[in-house]
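From the methods appendix. Each design record in this collection lists the tokenized structure first, followed by the designed amino acid sequence. Records were kept in a plain field format so they could be parsed without special tools. The example shown here is representative of the layout used throughout.

RECORD:
FOLD TOKENS (542 positions):
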């Protein structure tokens, strides 16, 4: 689990001051965005988001400082030298298979409010961004829906309620809520239970009909285009998305060692997942762990051994159907709330509208950190689909892309610079340039301060939090880089905000593509390149 420092660093405080003093500054390119302030966003069927779009402003660009052009030239030369140095590392590590003709490195660095880039290497070339695409998905959500938005999933029925008996079906309309549970401790189940208790408080003690999950305009959960091959689909990063989900479609196993020779304590959340179980972990001497996890259409498996000295081990794996997972958790919640179900759980689209008896609500803000700091793909893809559902009335990947396009237009950024087929960046078909990501990062600072703060706070922090916790700790970058990492086979990326000591806040994006078959280069060449570029940018001069 990620380690969070208890006290705010001086760098974070400095960046807060810089970011929000500059929150009204525009990007040098693109048309001014219109001020927002739209009413509550809800899809026509009442399921979607409740929220208010963020306000976006675009005043004048900060004048160029003396010597800025010369400083940019020195930084560009130094950046080129670092790229060449690490390309040589990659060439040697791959025995000549990686070279300048099949490796593409794009870099963009811009001070907030500046009229020119300090560094621009292949900055306009569209490339696969991997998980840096999550920056686009979460920015779109904050701009279109606002920082206080909530997913709203209504529980409704057209049947009469007499003496505690609902004389027909109870229908839930899909909102795409990922029901995020980042700690794997049952928080998502607790939220479902709260909705079930609200239903009981409305007088429902028994449902005489079926429990109906109406998936509406959301697709049947399935892998995205150009996702990893099926041998990886059990993994948590390949979790599917749809109209309903729990924990972004991921099961979380926590194993605690006991005495040598005894069974280890084992907990899987959500506990009610609708699958048969094949559980059994034995405690052995030492500190090694060999725990195998996975789920098929019928069975969830957690088996193996754990060393007594290791203490505790956690693992995650994808549920084969997030809608079925939600249904299992919902039925369990109804039972816990004292509500009996005469019928069964069914999935049926196009149910007539009924009276809303209760609502399941989840704050958007609680999903932003898991998406950006922890890089949870299933949660990001749920957000992408739900944006399409709530904003354009189509909970598909195409609908999500249209919704993101509306957010880019509101930010004054060109839509044509982005090709987006999922919300997570797992697909190789996604395309965006380093300059477009940098412009997006800067434009979000022109949103109202609450939206800008939510966005910045959702990112990993170098040396401190999330996927950057273990990088560049104890260096000048520690606590001064707020960014999103990204990696799929053949792609490595890092984009975000910099807070140089005594300097102006800056945005940056580093996108790297290389032959997918050349494994190991991300660790040996590309992450070190990103780290050294970040340190160079923080120094501000060669």
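DESIGN:
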């Amino acid at each position: 689990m990620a380690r969070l420092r208890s006290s705010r660093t001086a760098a974070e405080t400095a960046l807060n001051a810089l970011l929000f003093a500059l929150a009204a500054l525009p990007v040098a390119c693109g048309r001014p965005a219109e001020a927002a302030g739209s009413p509550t966003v809800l899809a026509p069927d009442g399921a979607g988001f409740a929220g208010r779009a963020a306000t976006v402003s675009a005043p004048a660009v900060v004048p160029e400082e003396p010597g800025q052009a010369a400083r940019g030239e020195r930084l560009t030369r130094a950046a080129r030298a670092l790229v060449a140095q690490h390309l040589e590392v990659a060439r040697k590590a791959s025995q000549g298979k990686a070279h300048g003709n099949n490796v593409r490195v794009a870099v963009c660095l811009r001070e907030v409010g500046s009229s020119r880039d300090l560094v621009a290497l292949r900055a306009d070339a569209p490339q696969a961004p991997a998980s840096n695409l999550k920056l686009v998905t979460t920015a779109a959500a904050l701009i279109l829906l606002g920082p206080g938005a909530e997913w709203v999933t209504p529980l409704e029925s057209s049947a009469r309620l007499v003496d505690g008996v609902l004389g027909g079906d109870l229908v839930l309309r899909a909102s795409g809520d990922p029901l995020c549970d980042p700690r794997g401790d049952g928080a998502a189940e607790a939220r479902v239970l709260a909705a079930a208790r609200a239903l009981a408080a409305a007088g429902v003690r028994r449902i005489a009909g079926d429990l109906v999950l109406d998936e509406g305009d959301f697709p049947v959960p399935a892998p995205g285009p150009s996702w990893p091959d099926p041998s990886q689909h059990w993994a948590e990063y390949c979790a599917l998305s749809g109209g309903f989900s729990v924990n972004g479609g991921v099961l979380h196993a926590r194993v605690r060692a006991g005495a040598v020779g005894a069974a280890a304590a084992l907990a899987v959340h959500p506990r009610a997942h609708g699958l048969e179980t094949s559980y059994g972990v034995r405690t052995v001497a030492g500190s090694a762990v060999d725990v195998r996890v996975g789920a098929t259409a019928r069975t969830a498996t957690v088996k193996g051994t754990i060393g007594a000295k290791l203490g505790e081990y956690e693992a995650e794996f994808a549920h084969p159907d997030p809608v079925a997972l939600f249904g299992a958790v919902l039925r369990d919640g109804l039972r816990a709330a004292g509500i009996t179900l005469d019928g069964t759980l069914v999935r049926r689209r196009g149910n007539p509208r009924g009276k809303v008896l209760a609502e399941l609500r989840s704050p958007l803000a609680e999903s932003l950190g898991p998406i950006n700091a922890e890089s949870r793909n299933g949660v990001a893809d749920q957000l992408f689909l739900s944006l399409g559902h709530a904003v354009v009335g189509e909970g598909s990947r195409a609908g999500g892309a249209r919704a993101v396009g509306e957010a880019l237009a509101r930010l004054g950024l060109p839509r044509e610079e982005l090709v987006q087929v999922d919300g997570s960046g797992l697909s190789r078909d996604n395309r965006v340039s380093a300059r477009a990501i940098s412009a997006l990062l800067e434009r979000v600072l022109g949103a109202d301060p609450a939206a800008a703060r939510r966005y910045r706070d959702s990112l990993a922090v170098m040396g401190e939090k999330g996927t950057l916790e273990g990088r560049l700790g104890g260096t000048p970058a520690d606590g001064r880089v707020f960014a999103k990492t990204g990696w799929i086979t053949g792609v490595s990326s890092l984009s975000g905000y910099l807070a140089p000591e005594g300097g102006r806040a800056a945005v940056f994006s580093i996108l790297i593509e290389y032959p997918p078959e050349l494994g190991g280069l991300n660790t040996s060449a590309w992450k070190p390149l990103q780290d050294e570029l970040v340190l160079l940018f923080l120094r501000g001069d060669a």
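APPENDIX NOTE: The chain has eleven helices and 24 strands.
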